[in-house]
From TrEMBL:
Belongs to the TRAFAC class translation factor GTPase superfamily. Classic translation factor GTPase family. LepA subfamily. Coiled coil: none annotated. It is an enzyme of class 3 (hydrolase). GO terms for cellular component: mitochondrial inner membrane; mitochondrial matrix. This is Translation factor GUF1 homolog, mitochondrial. It is found in: Mitochondrion inner membrane. InterPro entries: EF-4, EFG_III/V, EFG_V-like, EFTu-like_2, LepA_C_sf, LepA_CTD, LepA_IV, P-loop_NTPase. It comes from Salix brachista. The keyword Nucleotide-binding applies. Pfam families: EFG_C (PF00679), GTP_EFTU (PF00009), GTP_EFTU_D2 (PF03144), LepA_C (PF06421).
Length: 680
């Protein structure tokens, strides 16, 4: 056997060796790493790359690995806590001068991510989940030891998650690589809507949950109240709660020992053929596509040939390593470890999140993937100047390289020319995408009223999903016989004194109350089924404003419900502007039509001819406004003189204006489109 090992020093011979191992009784080499420590040095020869690197991952058998995530409601302090843990383990320097390291992880290396991170910092939110590997010396029972040298070192993979509801998809994919989660709750605000949503995501994924009550340094912090809430809502024991201040560092020393003690190690099988889960990917100018992966079974070495279970494509691993916190090559990744690979994929579209990658010489049972991202909001994006179409096309391609959750198809509008129909995870996601288009690519875009995916049934029995109001047929023979709209299950938590206004708001938005209770004497908890269309535009802002900013809100997709939907057209001088059409509930059509017409009147400048603005359902006009024409004083040069001459001049002007109205096109400023986005 020894000679067999020696013969396998090069990567080339590895291929033959693995074949030999498959047909012999020898355990495949991955198992050697964990079964017998004394053999590590020998086994290393299989993956000669691992020796070239300063970090030797062979020391970290699954028992010495913990993969965990930090989940919390927005702003409860996940990123700050993550930063402190990175500092505590020496992964980053204390006072590195960049607040929230995980949010800006790739700034120095990857310009495209840097700008995403700029958006994140400007808005103070996490958009993209990030991973960092840390090393921490600790006793097996989780106690920090005084005799540091004797304690084993653990490899900890920390996955930061976004807090905003739009990105709960990111949260669920981060959780797939974890065995435990720190559930961070603000000691002042207590349990909020996303705390509930994230708790259930983690609970359903069978993760060990460690409650962390953060911000205890705040003068109004009330950790006992939060402990009681956690007990009553999630049955989490008060004695299990950690009390911390990520800002001052208070209580942080208990966090990592608790992670090691309470979170199980990754369960994978070291001796099985390689199975790794593709968690995320992004495009780098120099290296190409970089994939974040979790090794579930077996091991991966640089130079290995791998295949995708989803696409069947084969790749050669050109680089492999961990995020420590920048990309750090290790040449190898072993069972239970989380890291990155560079494998020559041409575009992130080949890197399907949730895909199983395996050695191409073995066929394996694919791992359960994630739910694919569901696009909740669709909007048309058009270049403000039609000639910039190619530039916008290029900009969108570049952006979607790093954000595979945006769907893009080309479309054209008679009013705006060629453009794109894009699907987003939510309104914030759409906003962030716009902001990036403008900031990173200097693109000036006009976006159309956001819409949700409706389903329509026609008189000929066909059923179609409609993401663009312009897709509804104008052919009167093809009548709509039934329509359905997507709904969400919304969780709203707010101070009890605002119960009245919240119920009013939800009923105005056609909500159906499912649950209503009090978490404690101060906070109410409600569950509503709401049409998605009603929350994509301005619901959250309005909820915040009626509750003085204290309400929190989260939602999950639910079923489609039958609904009486109509297409509302906007006509300028009798011509429908397709880019301004929208689909609304019949009961709301009158109000929305009136609002749209009023808004447009404010934003369209007076022109040399009269402009009529109408809102119509089919041929029935339901709202109308007129912008009077600018009048040129054609009589300016007539001093006194014959009255018939003046009359003649005025008649001529009237004729000219008639012609203009007919042939003149109305200039619609960009702001008019932006204002329309806010009408719900
Ligand atoms: N007083 C106090 N402030 C804190 C503490 N932890 C975080 N903060 C502040 O709370 C704010 C939000 O912190 P973040 O770490 O960005 O919160 P987050 O949960 O990561 O937010 P998202 O990334 O948007 O999901 C920041 O202004 C932090 O400085 C703490 O322990 N005490």
């Amino acid at each position: 056997m020894g000679s067999l090992f020696r013969a396998s020093k090069t990567l080339k011979s590895q291929k033959y060796l693995s074949l030999l191992l498959t047909f012999s009784n020898f355990p495949p080499f991955a198992s050697i790493f964990t079964l017998n420590d004394s053999r590590f040095g020998v086994a290393h020869d299989f993956c000669s790359n691992s020796r070239q690197n300063s970090i030797d991952l062979a020391q970290y058998s699954p028992e010495r690995i913990r993969n965990f995530s930090i989940i919390a409601h927005v702003d409860h302090g996940k990123s700050t806590l993550a930063d402190r843990l990175l500092e505590l383990t020496g992964t980053i320097k204390r006072g590195h001068g960049q607040p929230q390291y995980l949010d800006k992880l790739q700034v120095s290396l990857y310009w495209s991510c840097a700008l995403l991170s700029k958006v994140e910092r400007e808005r103070g939110i996490t958009v993209k989940a990030q991973t960092a590997t840390m090393f921490h010396k600790c006793n097996h029972n989780g106690s920090n030891t005084k005799d540091v040298d004797k304690a084993p070192t653990f490899l900890l993979n920390l996955i930061d998650t976004p807090g905003h509801v739009d990105f709960s998809y990111e949260v669920s994919r981060s959780l797939a690589a974890c065995q435990g989660a720190l559930l961070v709750v603000d000691a002042v605000q207590g349990v909020q809507a996303q705390t509930v949503a994230n708790f259930y995501l983690a609970f359903e994924s069978n993760l060990a949950i460690i409650p962390v009550i953060n911000k205890i340094d705040q003068p109004t912090a009330d950790p006992d109240r939060v402990k009681a809430q956690l007990k009553s809502m999630f049955d989490l024991e008060p004695s299990e709660c950690l009390l911390t201040s990520a800002k001052t560092g208070l209580g942080l020393e208990q966090v990592l020992p608790s992670v090691i003690d309470r979170i199980p190690h990754p369960p994978g099988n070291t001796s099985s053929p390689l199975r790794m889960l593709l968690l995320d990917s992004y495009y780098d100018e120099y290296k190409g596509v970089i994939c974040h992966v979790a090794i579930v079974d077996g091991m991966l070495c640089k130079g290995d040939k791998i295949s995708s279970a989803a696409t069947g494509y084969t790749y050669e691993v050109a680089d492999v390593g961990i995020m420590h916190p920048e990309l750090t090559p290790t040449g190898v990744l072993l069972t239970g470890q989380v890291g990155y690979i560079v494998s020559g994929m041409r575009s992130t579209k080949e890197a399907r999140v949730g895909d199983t990658l395996h050695h191409n010489r073995f066929s394996v049972e694919p791992l359960p993937g994630f739910k694919p991202a569901r696009h909740m909001v669709f909007s048309g994006l058009y270049p403000a100047d039609g000639s910039d179409f190619e530039a916008l096309n290029h900009a969108i391609e570049r952006l979607t390289c790093n954000d595979a959750s945006v769907s893009v198809t080309k479309e054209s509008s008679s009013a705006l020319g060629l453009g794109f129909r894009c699907g987003f995870l939510g309104l914030l996601h759409m906003d962030v995408f716009h902001q990036r288009l403008e900031q990173e690519h200097g693109a000036h875009v006009i976006s159309t009223v956001p819409t949700v995916p409706y389903i329509f049934e026609y008189s000929d029995g066909s059923k179609v999903q409609v993401q663009n109001p312009a897709m509804l047929p104008s052919d009167p023979k093809k009548r709509v016989t039934a329509s359905w709209e997507p709904t969400v299950l919304a969780t709203i938590i707010f101070p009890s004194e605002y119960v009245g206004p919240v119920i009013t708001l939800c009923s105005e938005r056609r909500g159906q109350q499912l649950e209503y209770s009090f978490m404690d004497s101060q906070r109410a908890f409600m569950k509503y089924r709401l049409p998605l269309r009603e929350i994509v535009v301005d619901f959250y802002n309005e909820l915040k404003s009626i509750t003085s900013g204290y309400a929190s809100f989260d939602y999950e997709d639910s079923d489609y419900q039958e609904s009486d939907l109509v297409k509302l057209d906007i006509l300028l001088n009798g011509q429908a502007v397709d880019a301004m059409s929208t689909i609304v509930h019949k009961l709301k059509a009158q109000r929305v039509g009136r609002e749209l017409v009023d808004k447009l009147k404010k934003f369209i400048d007076r022109q040399m001819f009269e402009i009529t603005i109408q809102a119509a359902i089919g041929t029935k006009v339901i709202a109308r406004e007129t912008i009077s024409a600018m009048r040129k004083n054609v009589l300016a040069k007539c001093y006194g003189g014959d009255v018939t001459r003046k009359k003649k001049l005025l008649e001529k002007q009237k004729e000219g204006k008639k012609r203009m109205k007919r042939i003149g096109s109305v200039d619609i400023p960009q702001e008019a489109f932006h204002e329309l986005l806010k009408v719900s």
